[in-house]
């Protein structure tokens, strides 16, 4: 399933969502390509999605959910990749 959380993450003068899959990175990349997202938007286990593209992602089939639920599904699927500090 492709998932998207609400645009609530500030950066570069706008708000961002996270677009992720609980099935595979292949599914996620295919969805991102279909939306026209740049590869540079991939951040290890999700795409950073600008607020202006949130509704397009939902209309294309992404399931809206809270950020904590999105992360929980990534962890359960074994697809969560934490950033190194």
UniProtKB/TrEMBL annotation:
Domain of life per record: Bacteria
Domain named DUF4031: residues: 2-76
InterPro entries: DUF4031
One Pfam entry name: DUF4031
Name the record gives this protein: DUF4031 domain-containing protein
């Amino acid at each position: 399933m492709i998932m998207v959380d609400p645009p609530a993450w500030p950066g570069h003068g706008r708000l961002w969502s996270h677009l992720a899959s609980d099935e595979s990175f292949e599914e996620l990349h295919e969805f991102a390509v279909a939306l026209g997202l740049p590869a540079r938007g991939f951040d290890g286990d999700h795409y950073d999605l600008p607020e202006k593209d949130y509704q397009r992602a939902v209309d294309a089939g992404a399931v809206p959910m809270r950020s904590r639920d999105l992360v929980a599904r990534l962890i359960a699927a074994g697809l969560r990749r934490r950033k190194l500090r």
